[in-house]
Design goal:
Elements lengths: L1 H29 L2 E4 L2 E17 L2 E4 L5 E6 L6 E2 L4 E5 L4 E3 L4 E6 L6 E2 L6 E4 L4 E7 L1 H4 L7 E5 L8 E11 L2 E7 L12 E18 L3 E2 L2 E6 L2 E6 L1 E6 L2 E6 L7 E5 L2
Antiparallel strand pairs: 1-21, 2-11, 2-15, 3-10, 4-6, 4-9, 5-8, 6-7, 8-10, 11-14, 12-13, 12-15, 13-14, 15-20, 16-17, 17-18, 17-21, 19-20
Length: about 260
């Protein structure tokens, strides 16, 4: 009989705990809050940067001596084919398009004088584009050709494009990386910017916390029935999760996330 009473007592306690947990979850959902546990898992190590789209075929019409423009055959935005006339000068010298492309700059009008090394017009092949990224030295030391790259444009963040590092080199004390992204859409034009993540390694086991629960380097968690704030130092970010490199975060904590 005592064993039956003890069993009934424990069943009653478990039922009360279950009701309390269910009530807490109901209040959380009602208040627009949910709980997510930290987890251990793999994460990709990445170098992040802001890239700019560029054309790899550009032709600038410049002069070595001062001349006057006699006739312009094109205007900005014109699409031309190889061999089309671009501009004629006062000595009847004519410049022709060296490849198919789009006229992206006409800097002078007819009858205007052009001085040496001034650009009269620019032709670009918008079908051949790449992304250029300037990296800090610490990041550049870990980047090498062939590494995979994720590319995201601000207005289409839901869509990640895949590319790869084609080269890395110095220029005027900058460390530049060129990224090939096959199949860039026609509406992605030179001068546009994109967020890039260059994948430089992978950790097989890291403590991960949901990004949506982080605010100003801190997370609010429920631990032993109490809500506390835990400062964190974050490492790599992969999708919706961030690596925790420092901070008193336990696997049994419940991270509080506000629903939007």
């Amino acid at each position: 009989m005592k064993q039956i009473k003890h069993l009934k007592l424990w069943i009653g306690i478990a039922a009360i705990i279950g009701l309390l947990v269910a009530g807490m979850l109901y209040r959380q959902q009602k208040n627009g809050v949910e709980y997510v546990s930290p987890k251990y898992g793999p994460i990709v190590e990445a170098i992040y940067g802001l890239g700019k789209v560029k054309s790899d075929k550009t032709y600038d019409v410049k002069l070595a001596i001062t001349k006057t423009i006699d006739q312009l055959y094109v205007k900005e935005g014109d699409v031309v084919t190889k061999g089309n006339k671009l501009v004629r000068l006062d000595d009847h010298l004519i410049f022709y398009a060296p490849f198919d492309g789009t006229v992206t700059l006409v800097a002078f009008n007819e009858a205007q004088s052009v001085f040496p090394q001034q650009t009269i017009l620019r032709l670009e092949d918008l079908s051949h584009k790449y992304i250029e990224v300037s990296l800090e030295q610490q990041g550049a030391l870990r980047v090498k050709p062939g590494q995979p790259v994720r590319v995201m444009f601000e207005s289409v963040r839901a869509e990640q494009l895949k590319g790869s590092v084609s080269s890395i080199f110095p220029r005027n004390e900058e460390f530049l990386t060129h990224i090939d992204v096959p199949g860039l859409a026609q509406n992605i034009l030179p001068g546009m910017t994109a967020d890039v993540a260059i994948e430089v390694g992978k950790k097989d086991r890291a403590l991960l916390v949901p990004l949506s629960g982080i605010s100003n380097g801190r997370v609010r968690v429920v631990r032993d029935g109490k809500t506390i704030v835990v400062p964190l130092k974050l490492g790599d970010i992969d999708g919706n999760w961030a690596e925790v490199t420092e901070g008193d975060l336990k696997g049994s904590d419940q991270v509080i996330i506000k629903k939007h």
